[in-house]
Amino acid sequence: LQVANQIAAGEVIERPASVVKELLENSLDAGADQIEIDIEKGGIGLIRIRDNGCGIREAELPLAVSRHATNKIKELTDLEKLHSLGFRGEALASIASVSHFVIHSHFYNAENGYSLLLNTLSDEVIIEPVAHPIGTTVEVRELFYNTPARRKFLRAEKTEFGHIQEIVKRLALSRFNVSFNLRHQGKTTVSLKKTDDETSRLLRIGSLCGTEFMQTALTVSNENSAMRLSGWISPPSHARGQADQQYFFVNGRIVRDKLVNHAVRQAYSDVLYGGRHPCYVLYLDIDPSEVDVNVHPTKHEVRFVQSGWVHHLLVSSLQQTLEQTRP
Ligand code: ADP
Ligand code: MG
User: Fold this and answer.
1) Whole-number pLDDT of residue 143
2) Which of 3, 112, 225, 305, CA to CA, is 20 to 30 A from 60?
3) What's the farthest any 2 CA atoms get from each other in the chain?
4) Which residue from 72, 84, 322, 68 is spatially nearest to 217, judged by alpha carbons?
């Protein structure tokens, strides 16, 4: 069983940042609006994520670390309606198989909190009562301690922490109503309060994407009967040499998509030259039955049922926004 989990881990858990991504998605799926992330040694020493979500029932703790025991999806048709970020039910089992792993959780409707400890050698699960506020803390220590080949591929702690910061940034851009605190070696590197109006949203954009983007960005807002596009794009004059500030979210999920790149390039085509790239943070909200997110386990790809419509909405909305910058 452990070997099967380690193989699965190889597919989904590439580095500490992959662990952080899976744990944060679970916290968001649990409805948390406050998330604390503590990292040591670039995540190789420790990843600890505490949330104030719904918690896990005592009886469900062992299921949480067994593969495919997820109850988020019951039938295939649910896939179409799916709003939660996780649905494969193998992340925790995978992470637990390649680390020293502990969960503390207090289910919102239970009197007590419980901890789950996993003995990776004997496959034994130990559950004990523990004091914990409502919500969940997952602790992952010594990642890849038992898979040296994978551990060898890890980079310097600073680099690994950079990947973690990028994951936190993406999720913080996708959930403005959640507060995030990220610490490395006890030092705070990201501290974001919940936001509820345009001004505080822009402040979050500023602290994640830089004040230049915050001050110059044009607001995008457009919708038709099938979908809604919103967010911010840089004016052509503030395009940069590197495509490092490009974020596209579909129903709250980050996506890398050729169609999106193509549409953005087309919208900027007559105002942008010389290998410069527009910066953007864009949100597309669309009926979930119109997108297939189940293309790859890391879930960065999507397939739109009506890709022509999406492309058209993007190009026309962005062009319309860019018109504002013309004299
Ligand atoms: P998936 O997210 O695909 O369902 P995971 O392995 O990531 O699978 O998590 C397994 C299950 O453990 C989840 O379906 C959820 O029920 C529970 N769980 C994991 N993390 C949390 C959390 N932070 N809060 C509440 N429940 C959680
Ligand atoms: Mg998950």
Assistant:
1) 96
2) 3
3) 71
4) 322
19 and 161: one domain?
A: yes
Question: Cα(21) to centroid of ligand 1, in Å?
Answer: 12
Residue 23 near residue 49, CB atoms below 8 Å:
yes
Q: What is the pLDDT of residues 288-301, one digit of tens each?
A: 888 886 666 565 77
Examine the pLDDT at 226 and tell me if it is beyond 60. yes
Kindly report the CATH number assigned to the domain that includes residue 98.
3.30.565.10
Instruction: Ligand 1, residue 73: give the atom nearest the CA.
Output: 4
Q: Is residue 45 part of a domain?
A: yes
- CA–CA dist 41, 22 (Å, integer): 19
Q: Return the ligand number nearest the Cα of 70.
A: 1
**324 by DSSP, 3-state: which?**
coil
Judge whether 201 lies within some domain.
Answer: no
**Binding site membership of 151 for ligand 1 (Cβ less than 6 Å):** no
Considering the entire predicted model, what is its pTM?
Answer: 0.91
ipTM at complex level:
0.99
**17 and 97 co-located in one domain:** yes
Q: For residue range 199-211, list pLDDT tens digits in order.
A: 899 999 999 999 9
**Are 214 and 188 in a shared domain?**
no
Half-sphere exposure in the Cβ direction for 229 (13 Å, CA): 26
